[in-house]
Amino acid sequence: MENNTDNLSFGRYLRAARKEKKTSIEWVSKETRIARDVLQKIEAEDHDQLPQEVFARGFIRAYAKAVGADMGDALKRYEVSLEFHRRTTRSEADLIQLSKKFWPRILMSLAALVSMVALMIFSSSILQNNMGHGEPAGAGDKHAVESVPHESPAHGVEGASGGSSNHTDKDSQEADAETSSSGGDAAITGDVLEEKPPASPGIDEQSGIDGAGDVREAATDTVAQDNKDIYELYFLAKEETWLKVIADEQEPKEYLLKPGYELMIKANTSYNILIGNAGGVAMKLNGKPVDVPGRSGQAVNMELP
């Protein structure tokens, strides 16, 4: 191992111990029964891709034991790194939240400022046009006096108002008729579709739930299609257990089973299973019990059939 490992984080510390022992990561995977990609994430200290803390601690302990490193020292380094990662994540979230509040206010202020400037320019333009085309005050007054009609003011006002009133009443009746017609069309509505919440993916609708809310039967996760199933792999959790299952070499799926949970996964050809707590789960393949090597708290990797 390197002469000075005090400043190494947990991933670099374990990698240094492995290199000192001159072993490959494949050898560590075979020795600990931990998947190679999980070991690589531990060395890379990829907290976002590592499993939950309780399982990650078990993997780090097993890794340290395999390469002859101090398990307690490795776990302390992991805890320090995890706390730093959490603080960094919170700081980034706070900055994002602050940015979401800051930019809308800036944009609203800029929009208001641009609107005020545009209004001032428009008002100034109108004022200049009026001043440029305005007539002398005396000429305007003279024109106003000469244009006054000699008819009786009352008669002129009455005639104008009467004509306007008749025209307005006619327009109002036509507008009411159009409104009634459009209102009749608007009253016709279509059927209202009722939305239903989507069913939870992978959960059997006939799963039993007792009065305390404990789920006694969990999902049946089906990978095989077209009713060509060959294998049915059944899990029963005796303790809290984390699983990662690759069925028929498809995308891996992760599960966290609590005591009493049951899980059924179907496949056509094969399974690759990573169990975070070997002693916490019982398994059956097509109704036949499957021996799970290892004990409680130990992580194992299995391939079936």
Which helices and strands occur, and which strands form pairs?
Blueprint (H helix, E strand, L loop, with lengths): L9 H11 L4 H8 L3 H9 L8 H15 L3 H63 L3 H10 L6 H34 L33 E3 L8 E7 L3 E7 L5 E5 L4 E6 L3 E5 L5 E5 L2 E3 L9 E5 L1
Parallel strand pairs: 1-5
Antiparallel strand pairs: 2-5, 2-7, 3-4, 3-6, 6-9, 7-8
Could you characterize what this model shows?
The protein has 305 residues and is of the alpha+beta class. The chain folds into 2 domains: 1-129, Orthogonal Bundle (434 Repressor (Amino-terminal Domain)), CATH 1.10.260; 220-304, no CATH class. Helix content is 49%, strand content 15%. The chain contains 7 helices and 9 strands. The strands form 2 sheets. It has a 5-stranded mixed β-sheet, with no helix packed on it. The longest helix is centred in the middle third of the chain and has 63 residues, at 71-133.
Number of strands: 9
CATH top-level class of the largest domain: Mainly Alpha
Listing every helix as H and every strand as E from the N terminus to the C terminus, the arrangement reads HHHHHHHEEEEEEEEE
CATH topology of the largest domain: 434 Repressor (Amino-terminal Domain)
Please give the alpha-carbon distance between the first and last residues: 40 Å
Task: Characterize the largest beta sheet: strand count, sense, and whether it forms a barrel.
Answer: 5 strands, mixed
**What is the number of independent domains?**
2
Q: Mean pLDDT, rounded to whole units?
A: 74
Report a brief summary of the structure.
The protein has 305 residues and is an alpha+beta fold. 49% of the residues lie in helices and 15% in strands. It has 7 helices and 9 strands.
